[in-house]
């Protein structure tokens, strides 16, 4: 690192600190760094050095705008509200029931609740489930969709349905391990399945 340059983690830390100061009602919540990471990476690795120089400001702007849409996921007092994370998980489970009743029944039988796996999926927009290039590809699809958080639910359901055979043949420990450590695959398969689910009428 050249003299006078900052490490990337210092820039990310400053963005999160400033966000927390400007939003005292919410402040910093664990996991926000996982949301900021892909945004900052996209700007900081721009091939045009002129754009890279503004990576911090651009990242802060985009992070703040994205958080304005998903901040309710990070506020515990809103967990049970219509805009909260529990409602999102309920919607996902309802969609799974409509899309694949057998898997839904298996989850009911095992008492495998969505809090055990989809809380992280939804709150962090799948940023911890896939390698960074795949996360960026998923986010391209999410952010280009006007109903982006409905599409997020379809993606989560697609992830489950694609591994349905392993889930149906597994027990609680093996299924929860599979869901919490999602197997590596071409994310285009997941996105195509999610698109297919979004176009079905139930």
UniProtKB/TrEMBL annotation:
The lineage of its organism: Eukaryota, Metazoa, Ecdysozoa, Arthropoda, Hexapoda. Pfam families: RabGAP-TBC. This is Rab-GAP TBC domain-containing protein. One of its GO terms (molecular function) is GTPase activator activity. SUPFAM superfamilies: Ypt/Rab-GAP domain of gyp1p. It comes from Photinus pyralis (Common eastern firefly). Keywords: GTPase activation, Membrane, Transmembrane, Transmembrane helix. The keyword Transmembrane helix applies. PANTHER family: TBC1 DOMAIN FAMILY MEMBER 13, TBC1 DOMAIN FAMILY MEMBER GTPASE-ACTIVATING PROTEIN. Residues 1-146 form the Rab-GAP TBC domain. One of its GO terms (biological process) is intracellular protein transport. The chain crosses the membrane at residues 149-167.
């Amino acid at each position: 690192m050249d003299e006078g340059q900052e490490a990337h983690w210092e820039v990310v830390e400053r963005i999160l600190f400033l966000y927390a100061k400007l939003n005292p009602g919410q402040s910093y919540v664990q996991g926000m760094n996982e949301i900021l990471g892909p945004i900052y990476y996209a700007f900081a690795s721009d091939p045009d050095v002129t754009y890279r120089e503004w990576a911090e400001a651009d990242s802060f702007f985009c992070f703040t705008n994205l958080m304005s849409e998903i901040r309710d996921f990070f506020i515990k007092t809103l967990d049970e509200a219509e805009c909260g994370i529990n409602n999102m998980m309920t919607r996902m489970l309802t969609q799974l029931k409509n899309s694949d009743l057998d898997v839904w029944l298996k989850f009911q039988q095992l008492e495998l609740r969505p809090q055990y796996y989809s809380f992280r999926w939804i709150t962090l927009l799948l940023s911890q489930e896939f390698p960074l290039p795949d996360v960026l590809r998923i986010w391209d699809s999410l952010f280009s969709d006007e109903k982006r958080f409905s599409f997020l639910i379809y993606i989560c359901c697609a992830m489950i349905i694609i591994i349905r055979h392993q889930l149906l043949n597994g027990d609680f420990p093996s299924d929860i391990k599979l869901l919490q450590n999602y197997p590596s695959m071409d994310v285009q398969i997941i996105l195509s399945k999610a698109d297919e689910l979004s176009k079905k009428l139930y």
